[in-house]
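Input sequence (150 aa), recorded before submission:
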Amino acid sequence: MSIPSFRNNLPIDIHGNSIQIIKEKSGDYIASVSLFSSKFIKENNLPNGKILVKLSTRKQNSMKVILDRIIDSTYAKGACMLHKHKKKWYLSITYKSNIKEELKFDEDLIMGIDMGKINVLYFAFNKGLVREAISGEEIEAFRKKLSIDV
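Predicted structure, token format:
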């Protein structure tokens, strides 16, 4: 059994559902962070228990794109952390893509394969000029490498 401990430099773990991100008309991003349980809020007569944090996205267009995708649910929020570094607070948000690509089977696409001695494998597609070969030299080099390592 472990004993819970606290140090002032440990990050605060926050469940992804406890954070809502809002984009204001000015273009600023605000994170509404709920740090307290509903039971604690009721016991202490707190109005809502949420802290509003302005997210700094200056000169970071990639961060703005990610936040926009989290807002429009293209990305799903995961676990989050609040941590302090050099007297500044940072909010780390994990995210993952919700988009699942469907693999479509193309019945008109045909791949031909030729197995031989000089080129162990040669393949080509009926559409386009995609052709590739695996030479016998590659396999011989691999076999020699395995025999030396053993």
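Checked by second reader. Residues 111-149 form one domain.
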